[in-house]
Write a structure and sequence with these properties.
Layout: E1 5-14, E2 17-27, E3 32-36, H1 43-50, E4 58-63, H2 72-76, E5 79-82, H3 94-105, H4 111-117, H5 133-144, E6 151-155, H6 163-178, E7 182-186, H7 190-196, E8 199-204, E9 207-212, H8 214-221, E10 226-231, H9 233-241, E11 247-250, E12 253-257, H10 263-273, E13 278-284, H11 288-309
Parallel strand pairs: 3-7, 3-8, 5-6, 6-7
Antiparallel strand pairs: 1-2, 1-4, 8-9, 10-12, 10-13, 11-12
Length: 310
């Protein structure tokens, strides 16, 4: 099956600034792909090139088999886009907004059905200015579906929303995938990407520093599973002397890395045998956010050291 998105050797240069430095990735149809990175990493530039809003300096980009820059008119009829912090005419209602977009695209969707799909049926007659932040984002999603797109580009669709509104948007995204649509998602909420995305790419300083499924990235770049107990640092010394490790102590807790699941019982037995008071036992494993913060932080520290050495 042809790829929904294919990027090879993509660069974008602004005068002396390299925003995107030769990246490669692909997105399979009918999947959720999360494109992650800190501010200034090249995320927005890349996304806008895919949408046909910016021209690549070099490299090959295909979205639904089309060149976004030279075949943008044809492409825009097949994709849906919701920008971050979606805004619209203040006095328009959701029903009117859907009808307006339908006229622009020359399509005839059922406004009631479209608003029902994004969980906004009871606000079809409300003015845009009266909608909550979550309801405005839902309307943005509805408008991105007016032309029945094959790919939906969602730029931080849950930023600033309360937990209930965020979860409602998540369900809409899952629904898009069930319908066989491709979702290209950018977000600063790493747990959101871990929950929703089939595959993830992390970009920093214009380069992709990790890609794969969330599980693959965590396995490749995360720390081993750990046992944590609240105890004095002396417990860490005891465990080290009895063959546990690596062991660390900080902020009133002692953590021990596990080589495998069978290690847990051995470590807990040693903790109990130490005679040192302890409580609040838990196990920890890295999530995508932990990996992201560590990788980005290490790159930034390395860049600072190189700059200082220069």
């Amino acid at each position: 099956m042809p790829l929904a998105i294919e990027v090879r050797g993509l660069t974008k240069q602004y005068a002396s600034v390299t925003a995107v430095a030769g990246i490669d990735f692909s997105v399979a149809p009918g999947t959720v792909f999360a494109f992650l990175g800190p501010n200034g990493a090249g995320k927005t530039t890349t996304t806008e090139i895919l949408e046909g809003l910016r021209r690549a300096t070099t490299g090959a980009v295909r979205v639904l088999g089309l060149d976004p820059w030279t075949e943008g008119t044809a492409l825009h009829r097949r994709i849906g886009v919701i920008p971050q912090d979606f805004r619209f005419f203040e006095k328009i209602t959701p029903k009117e907004a859907v009808e307006y977009y339908a006229a622009l695209f020359g399509t005839r969707p059922d406004p009631a059905d479209l608003l029902r799909r994004v969980e906004l049926p009871d606000k079809s007659g409300a003015r845009f200015e009266t909608l909550s932040g979550g309801q405005k984002q839902k309307l943005g999603l509805a408008l991105s579906l007016v032309n029945n797109p094959e790919i939906c580009f969602l730029d931080e669709p849950t930023t600033g929303l309360d937990p209930h509104a965020r979860r409602a948007i998540w369900e809409v995204i899952r629904g898009l995938k069930r319908e066989g649509r491709t979702v290209f998602l950018t977000t600063h909420y790493l747990e959101e990407a871990e929950l929703l995305a089939d595959r993830v790419a992390i970009i920093h300083h214009g380069k992709i520093i990790a890609s794969g499924t969330p599980g693959e990235i965590i396995a490749a770049h995360g720390r081993p599973e750990r046992i944590r107990v609240r105890a004095a640092p002396s417990l860490a010394d005891y465990l080290r002397s009895h063959g546990a490790g690596p062991v660390s102590a900080a902020d009133g807790y002692v953590e021990v890395e596990l080589a495998d699941s069978h290690d847990a019982l051995r470590i807990l037995t040693a903790v109990q045998a130490s005679g040192i008071p302890w409580d609040d036992f838990s196990t920890l494993r890295d999530h995508l956010e932990d990996v992201f913060v560590r990788m980005v932080g290490q790159m930034d520290e390395g860049a600072l050291r190189e700059g200082g050495a220069a």
